[in-house]
Each structure stands twice: as structure tokens, then as C-alpha cells.
Amino acid sequence: MNVNVQFGTGFTISQNNTGAQGSEARTGVAVPVESENQSTTSFTPVQEANENPRSKQEGAEQGTEQRQAVEQRRARQQQDERQTQQQQERRIERERQQVQLEDAQVERNSQKDNDSQEDSVNQRSQEEQQAQDRRQQDAYEQRQLQAEQRQLQKLAERDREVRAHEQAHQSVGGQYAGAMSFTYVRGPDGQNYAVGGEVSIDTGKVANDPQATLDKAETIRRAALAPAEPSSQDRRVAAQAIQMTMEARADIQKQQQEALIEEDTSEEQTDSKALSEEERLEAEQKAQKQEQDEELSNSISADLQELNERMSRVQSQLVEASQIDEKINAGVNLLDVTT
Q1: Does the pLDDT at position 39 exceed 60?
Q2: 3-class secondary structure for 3-43?
Q3: Angle CA(219)–CA(224)–CA(227) in degrees, nearest 5?
Q4: Residue 279 CB: number of other CB atoms within 10 A?
Q5: The pTM is what?
Q6: Cβ-based neighbour number of residue 216 at 10 Å
Q7: pLDDT 10s digits, 221-243
Q8: DSSP string covering 193-225, please?
Q9: Domain for residue 322, yes or no?
Q10: CA atoms of 11 and 252, how far apart (whole Å)
Q11: Confidence band (pLDDT; 50, 70, 90) for 48?
């Protein structure tokens, strides 16, 4: 009787029994071997043979040895597979590490590129910022220069105005005007510019000479109002000159009256020594005439007083106007009376 057992891919073992006369005992056993794709089991019957106990024992020993050999081969195969798997895992690990190294290198290169780009961007930003700072500095310097030029222009114009103003006072004041003096301001160019000035002038009366005082007062008034734009102080000096003029005219009128009285008294004393009727008549007529002259003089005095009152009102108005101008142009002195 033959028996075949097959698990996937197998092999057949045949045994002959020499102890049996003319008979042959064959036993076929298929031992399974590792197979990844075999999932079926088949049994193939073989012809049975007469076997004696010895042959069966030998066959069993041979089967045991074969199974051991198969198991050893299977163990070696499994060990080889484990080694192969380990080698493959190590290879995969090395590849993974290599990939990580390459990724790290790429990342470092990318970081270097980013750093280089960032440095380039920072450098451009710094250059742009520096250029912007230079432009702002240039614009600031340009504005500063323009401001200095405008300041110099204003100082130069003020210097010309002040000098022309004081020169007008001095020219018209003549012998009564003193020397010019100025207040200076240093400009951005280092030069001094006149921003204020004054001219001294004598406003005292001429002793025992009302007519000379009148002429002097007129000169002072013209000198005070000589500039194109008189200051409040100039107007005060002009008002003071007008007051001098009124007082000088009053002194002149008083002198004339006193001279007329002295002349009449002298004539009366001369004519009283040889009076006649006719002369007394003439004297009476003269006395009447004198009375008329006195009345006329009194009338003139009244008119003069009224004129003085009007001049006083005009002077008050001028003083008020000068006070208003003084509030507007405070601190400007041009004549030494208060200049």
C-alpha cells in the first residue's frame, strides 16, 4: 500500500523492505515546506505494502531525521528571513537617515538662502532708510536755509528802514538834533543789523527870545514828523513842539503889548509939559484912541485865549492818538526825548 501526503510543495520518501520475499514495501510521505502562496492540502493515496516491524521502525527513524532536517532547514530559512528583514530594516533606516540628512541639508541651504535674502532685504532696507534720512536731512537743511534767507531779508529791510527813519530826524532837526544811535541784532550770517534807533534833540526854550523859541519849536515838529511812518514817540514829540509854539506865540504877544504900553506912557510924559487946550483935546482924543486900542487888545487877548484853548484840545487829541499808536508799536523809541 502506497500513501502520499502533500502540503504544498513536498517530497516523497520510498522505502523497500528486503526482509519480505518478492515483496516491496514503499511508503511515501510528503513533508510540508514553507510556502507563501499555498493554502490547500491534498492527500494522494499510495499502494500499501507489507511491512514488518523492523522496516517500520527504520522508516520511522528515517522520518524523524527527515523531519529534523526539515525543521533545521525551516529554522535556517526563518533565520535567513529574519536577517534579511533586519538587513532590509537597517537599509530602510539608513535610507531614512539619509533622507533626514538630505532634508536637513536642504533645510540648512534653504535657511542660508533665506538668511541671505533676509540680509539682502535688510541691507536694502538700511540703504533705503539711509537714503530717506539723507533726503529728510537735505529737506531740513533746505528749509533751514530758506528760513535763514527770509530772516536775513527781513533784518536787511528793517536795517534800511531804521537808518532811513533816524536819518530823516537828523536831517530835518539840523543843529538841534544829535548823533544817531542804534540797537543791533546779529543775523545768521554773523553780521549786525539795526532793529531800533534814536536821535537826541534839544527841546528847551531860547532864553528871552520867544521868536527864536517859536522857530525852534517849528523845526522840532518838522523833525519829529519827517519819517514816512512816524512812531507814537515821534507824535508825542510833535505834540510837545506844538505846545512850545503856542507858548512862544503867547510870549510874543505879551511882549508886543508891553512895548505898546511903554510907548504910550513915554508919549504922555513928553506931551504933558506943554499942554494947551488944543493939546488937551488931542490928549483926550488920544486917550479915547488908547481905550479903543486897549479894547482891541483885550479882544485880541480873548481871541488868543480861545485859540490857545483850541490848540490845547488839538494837543489832547494828538496825545490820545499817540497813546493808541504806542499800544500798537510798544517799545519803539526813535528820539531821545523819550526816543
Answers
A1: no
A2: EEEEECCCCCCCCCCCCCCCCCCCCCCCCCCCCCCCCCEEE
A3: 120
A4: 13
A5: 0.43
A6: 23
A7: 999 999 989 999 999 999 999 99
A8: EEEEEEEEE--PPPTT-HHHHHHHHHHHHHHHT
A9: yes
A10: 173
A11: very low
Contacts 24+ apart (CB under 8 A), 312-320: 312/246, 314/242, 315/239, 315/242, 315/243, 318/235, 318/238, 318/239, 318/242, 319/236, 319/239
- H/E/C letters for each residue in 248-290? HHHHHHHHHHHHHHHHHHHHHHHHHHHCCHHHHHHHHHHHHHH
Q: What are the cell numbers at 256?
A: 508886543
**C-alpha–C-alpha distance, residues 268 and 103, integer Å:** 146
- Would you tell me how many other CB atoms lie within 10 Å of the CB of residue 50? 13
Would residue 12 be called left, alpha or beta, if left means φ above 0 and alpha means ψ between -120 and 50 degrees? beta
Residue 268: band (very low, low, confident or very high) from pLDDT cuts 50, 70, 90: low
Contacts of 210-217 with CB under 8 Å at 24 or more apart are 210/248, 210/249, 210/251, 210/252, 210/255, 211/248, 211/252, 213/244, 213/247, 213/248, 213/251, 214/244, 214/245, 214/248, 214/249, 214/252, 216/176, 216/244, 217/241, 217/242, 217/244, 217/245, 217/248
What would the pLDDT profile of 155-211 be if each residue is shown by its tens digit?
Answer: 999 999 999 999 999 999 999 999 999 999 999 999 999 999 999 899 888 888 999
Which grid coordinates are listed for 314?
488839538
Coil, helix or strand for 187?
A: coil
Can you give the pLDDT at residue 336? 43
Cell of 263: 510907548
Helix (H, G, I), strand (E, B) or coil at 189: coil
Of the chain, the percentage scoring pLDDT greater than 70 comes to: 71
Print the domain residue range for 61: 3-34+42-91
Q: How many domains does the chain have?
A: 2
Question: Is the distance from CB of 257 to CB of 297 less than 8 angstroms?
Answer: yes
Paired with 180 in beta bridges are 199
Task: Write down the residue that cell numbers 513928553 correspond to.
Answer: 270
Neighbours of 337 (CB within 10 A): 20
